[in-house]
TrEMBL record:
GO CC term, one of those recorded: ATP-binding cassette (ABC) transporter complex
Membrane topology reported for the UniProt record: Peripheral membrane protein
InterPro entries: AAA+_ATPase, ABC_transporter-like_ATP-bd, ABC_transporter-like_CS, ABC_transpr_CbiO/EcfA_su, ECF_ABC_transporter_ATP-bd, EcfA2, P-loop_NTPase
Name of the protein described by the UniProt record: Energy-coupling factor transporter ATP-binding protein EcfA2
Entries under PANTHER family matching the protein: ENERGY-COUPLING FACTOR TRANSPORTER ATP-BINDING PROTEIN ECFA2, HEAVY METAL TRANSPORTER
NCBIfam families: ECF_ATPase_2, PRK13637.1
Domain ABC transporter intervals: 3-245
Transmembrane segments: none
Function text: ATP-binding (A) component of a common energy-coupling factor (ECF) ABC-transporter complex.
UniProtKB keywords: ATP-binding, Cell membrane, Membrane, Nucleotide-binding, Translocase, Transport
Organism: Clostridium gasigenes
PROSITE patterns: ABC_TRANSPORTER_1 (PS00211), ABC_TRANSPORTER_2 (PS50893)
Amino acid sequence: MSIKIENLKYIYMPKSPFEKVALDNVNLEINNGEFIALIGHTGSGKSTLIQHMNGLLKPSSGRIIIDDVDITGGEVKLSDIRKKVGLVFQYPEYQLFEESIEKDIEFGPRNLGLEQEEITKRVKKSMEMVGLDYETYKDKSPFDLSGGEKRRVAIAGVVAMEPKILILDEPTAGLDPKGRDDILAQIKTLHIKYKMTIVLVSHSMEDVGKVAERIIVMSKGGVVLEGVPAKVFKEIDKLESIGLGVPQVTYLMRSLKQKGFDVSEDIFTVDQGRLELLRVLKENRK
Ligand code: ADP
């Protein structure tokens, strides 16, 4: 399961006075089993790009190839793409509408025309995958939940379609620090335990530093940087020039290094930072 994007260009409202080139000459590949973070400033084209990955938007030019099938060709059914690539929108809880959590999560699988037994099986499994106990939550109203729980229900609704690739647009937006960490940990579980390929859209370097294996950086409708966190976070000047930065702890390590401490600059999480500082303290005591 992979997504290949070739020379993608997308123009909103073409040939009108409001014409806007949102993506231009985007080339990238997402491989089976990866955990990718797609980062960029507001307006850089992230949402437009991910909507191409599950066929919601059609390129103005270029190709999207999913599992060796060109989905821009015309013959591919959107429902077939959705079964492979699940997209969780920003603030997905706004789309919850059923009276119970179970009914809400059932909505997608039911639209696939599955038998009730299979539907219930999928609801149970997807609730387990997002960390919600089936018996405790199934009959509750989605509207009685906390922000983080609502978001889990919305994610379960997409997971219940059993996609191989899960794309999440700013899944931590608007949550408190605990809610953010919980959702990120859950997404990591989907990746590690359930082997889902993940594309996490974010503009939080702290979030990205915690979870991503590879980072794709966008600016003004194009990919400007790409690679493992250690490579991308070295490009502080470039990231800052496009309105981004690196995790706070990486800045801290950098300034300690500049002051003569022998610390690694490849540190992106507070936990890594703590261990590194302990290591340096121990070395200095010797
Ligand atoms: P991001 O997700 O990185 O914030 P978007 O993909 O939403 O970026 O936007 C990319 C560019 O396309 C921006 O300049 C934005 O204003 C423009 N854009 C997004 N959606 C629309 C739309 N529906 N109509 C016209 N322009 C749009």
